[in-house]
Amino acid sequence: MSAMLTPWGERLDPASILPEYPRPQMERASYYNLNGTWACSFTASGDAPGTWQDILVPFSPEAPLSGVDRMLKPGEFLWYRRTLPTTRIPEGGRLLLHFGAVDQQAEVYINGVHVASHMGGYTPFSADVTGALRPEGDNELLVRVQDDTDASWHSRGKQSSNRGKIWFTPQSGIWQTVWMEAVPRVYITGLVITPLFDKKAVSITVNASEHTDCTITLNGSAYSARSGEALIITPDVFHPWSPEDPHLYSFTVRAGSDEVESYFALRSVCVSKDEQGVPRLFLNGKPYFQTGLLDQGYWPDGLYTAPSDEALIDDIARMKAMGFNMLRKHIKIEPLRWYYHCDRLGMLVWQDMVNGGRKGYNPLIINAPMITGVHVKDSHYALFRRQDAEGRAEYYRELDEMIRHLYNCPSIVMWVPFNEGWGQFDAAEAVRRIEAIDQTRVIDHASGWNDQGIGEFMSLHVYFMPYRFKKDKRGRCVILTEFGGYNLSIDGHTWNDAAYGYKQMASREALAGALAKLYGEEIIPAKAKGLSAAVYTQVSDVEDEINGLMTYDRKVQKLENDVLLAINNQLRD
To answer: Model-level pTM?
Structure first.
């Protein structure tokens, strides 16, 4: 296996790693980024370590850019240490410490005082560390991490202790930005933003540390509100958001002396019938075909962590330049800046929940349905490796965290709680829980197979055989949520000697011809009959998989934009 760097990894400045504010819909001026050089140590027990080495945060120790090149094993402990800079805190104010994501279980200490615990490698957490700070001198931050990967039932995504083919290198520890904020005693803790498209309005709820008056300023107009209570605002100009016109409204929220900058968009998504009575995906009240790509969000040098904000932008912008209007974020929750770029650039997002359950998924559940078409009831927990009640409860908690965490992102139009039976269970209950939080988006309850006959979609994955459109017997909207995956190896730009994909191509010309044939004979005719979305596999190569439209290092785009633009222009509504 050879080392591989992206262009941004090659230019990485250790003194300025992902310096951008990590939470664009609640941005404060009092921001101190803690990314950079920390110390780390691996121990066999939970006792504090004696020896340390440098690590570049927020890259996992398994990622080349971290400078560590060491894997955290189940049962081991990974420690992080750094000194916190002296921060001016307002009179009577607080100091908040934020972690974007830590895989998998984190315990946080300030000067030996325990200030936070968090289980789950994909959602953020914060701590008020004011009471643990020394009045003078340095303050020590210590983080202890454990990561079982697939040795337990915790959510792990496509990380595998036995990586290969569609399963990837496991990673651990801090993998998103760490930062601090000084806030006054009464401060804004969160925003809940709901577009009310049919009313040409938006609902904004400001949550705060104490019940208080607050002011929302939009386009020069100030609106009075109370924290915890929804305020409905009708902008002077109604400007719908779409991939073709991604208009964002900027606004400011002030509560006492605390102030944050934010934004929203006005758009609606639903399933409805077109003029011919065919159920289709609608955007802003009109049929809208979603032509997209599977996007796994892996990087050869940073693994889960993109080496720069520009790298995140480049992936989205390139796919948009090819004519795609949607990305299915596959089995990963990205940093909020990725969704922000989708919001402002105009890219629809289908968001997968991260899979878990016990190691060793049953091939009869996760592979055979692709050929047999047999769907299994997901109440058989053991068949789906979900026999642990603790794991099922943890899934629901993390599902709730994901929906609430990403709720405000207008680019997200679909939730996908399960994929191909990977740890699937009680999908109907997952849908119920999602709908209890969010009724502004649609839900694909079981992407690929093990369809439970519920919801608004018949969701299909089709590889190895031609796709031919068939109406759903239950009258649901039909979406092709994975297909294609044609693999093309580019000399000098492969991660190893493996060549995993679903149809081998000998050249770029062959790939271009094959895709034109695939879309021309299967997808475009299916759209006319009722297909509402198509998700090609995939944005980039990932480790063994070489079926991306770009190489894993992002240095080679395998096809010219015009090839895919010609295809996607035929799919546009």
So the answer is: 0.97
